[in-house]
Every structure is written in structure tokens, then in C-alpha cells.
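TOPIC: backbone geometry
CONTENTS: sequence, C-alpha cells:
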Amino acid sequence: MKTSIESLFTDKTTVDKVQQKLPKLFQVAELETTRGGKVGMEVGSLRERVLVALLIHQFGEENVKTDIPITAAEADVFVFDKAFSIKTLSNSLSGLKLIWTVDAQSAFKFSQEYEPSCDMIFVHINWSKHGGLYCIPKKVQLEIFNKIGRNEYIKLPKEGTNPRGVEMQGKALKSLVTHTDTLKIDIHWEKEKIDFDVFERWIELWAEDDE
């Protein structure tokens, strides 16, 4: 049993598996949440489950904790009792959502109080191009945060618009993913032809006890 997150990025068998399977699993997540030709916001939750399932597969269910206390605001999962946030982003590295909120006052308060508090597992999805799976240590986030300053790290929604949350600036994100201490698996994001029915498994569950 591997005993640290680093093995996810250094074990060749695991790296190969991530490169081969993650695009397909994320494609299924998109198909699951697509309505009227558009991918819904709930795709983020499904992607997070895919990544947590990878961690459980790699490290064992006993070493991956998903029942997170409310006081751990930024953490999405614990691996060997170490907190990680999970973030995913499609297309360009233009900005990364740190918190979803429609309240301008809450967004401003968050922007003034925020400081990176745990390591980050980040996936850059870039269909038909290259992206990757990253592990960005807390110390790297704090280094960039302190180097460029709060106002250059965090982007508030424009006044008078319908705010959907607070983002990390694109230049901060690019500094994080290119840092020498950030772990990375390069991924080429190619879609496959998948015959997928979003209702099939639910129909099968309804039919389980039918004669």
C-alpha cells in the first residue's frame, strides 16, 4: 500500500492508468450532467467523486476520509489524515473558482479573509489538447499568495453583475501549476465515442425486483 499522495504522481502504473482513464471518466461525468447540449454546473461534484474514487482505489478506503467537519471549510477530502481541496477547470487557465456565492457582501468578506489552508488536487481539462492532474502543496500556494499579494491572487466579481463566486486570478493559477514543487501528470484530453444512457442504471434499479 502506498503511503503518500506523491506515489500517485510517481508510480508508472498509476500514472499510465490516470492518463488513460481520467479523460473517459470525466467525459462520462459530462454526459451524465448534459442537458440541452450544455454541461450543467453539477458536473463539478461528479468530477470530485471520480477523483475521490481514484484516491480510494490507490490508498484504500480506510485511508481516505470524505466525512469532512464543517470547520474544514476548504478541505474536500483527507488522505492519510492530510487535508486536500479538489478543484477542476475546463479550457484555459484563466481563473479558478475558490468559492461559489451569489452574495456580494459574502464574496468580499471571503476575499479579505482567504488564505490557502491545505494542499490542492487540481485537474486542468482541455479537450483535444493537453492538460493535467496536479497536486499543489499548501506551501506553494502560500508562496505565490504572499509573493503577488491578495489583490493579484484573488478576483472579485464585477460590481453590478450577478456574482457567482470568488476566483483565483489566472496568473496566480499559472504560477501554481508551473512551480517546481507542484506534482503533475500530463494528460492528453481526447473524447471517445461512448454509447451512454443517463437513465439506464436507474431503470435497472427500478426493475430489480420485477418478476
User: Anything to note?
Assistant: The first strand starts at residue 34 and ends at 35. The chain has one domain: 7-206. The two ends are 44 Å apart (CA to CA). DSSP finds eight helices and eleven strands in the chain.
